[in-house]
Amino acid sequence: MSIKIIPIMWGTKKRLIKDLVEQEIHTVQKIFEQGSYVSQWDGRGVDKKYVYRCFTDGDLPPNGIKDNDKIQTIRIQGNNDVVGLLTTYQDYPNPKTMYITNLYIDLEY
């Protein structure tokens, strides 16, 4: 049995989360790069193509399936400003598991 895949759009009264579209890659990459301090902990540099790669290929675990991978924008309800990104993966390491790969919120918010 597999869990339901996160919908392409969902949210709350204050936030709207929806699948990333190609025109938003640059904006969302800038938000991702605000977390560059993480490289101090993991020893890796900032991935300048992370958002593009997630959009095109996915950020997959071993033998992962692109359809189980999501990259979504977090927006302010009402004005539609992009204020963050959420990446998730479902069905790994077992069908009942879903995990958040990354959650970034723009430093201005």
Textual characterization of the structure:
This protein is α+β, with helices and mostly antiparallel strands. 18% of the residues lie in helices and 30% in strands. A five-stranded antiparallel sheet has the order 1-2-3-4-5, covered by helices on one side. Strand 1 and strand 2 form a beta hairpin. It is globular. The chain starts with 8 loop residues before the first strand and ends with a strand.
Key structural traits:
single chain; 109 residues; alpha+beta; five-stranded antiparallel β-sheet; 3 helices; 5 strands
What overall geometry do the principal axes of the alpha carbons give? globular
Number of helices: 3
**Main sheet: strands, sense, barrel:** 5 strands, antiparallel
**Could you report the average pLDDT, rounded to the nearest whole number?**
89
Beta-strand content = 25-35%
Oligomer: single chain
Tell me the layout of helices and strands.
Blueprint: E1 9-11, E2 15-19, H1 25-33, H2 39-42, H3 50-56, E3 69-76, E4 82-90, E5 98-105
Antiparallel strand pairs: 1-2, 2-3, 3-4, 4-5
Write a brief caption for the model.
With 109 residues, the chain is an alpha+beta fold. The chain is 18% helix and 30% strand.
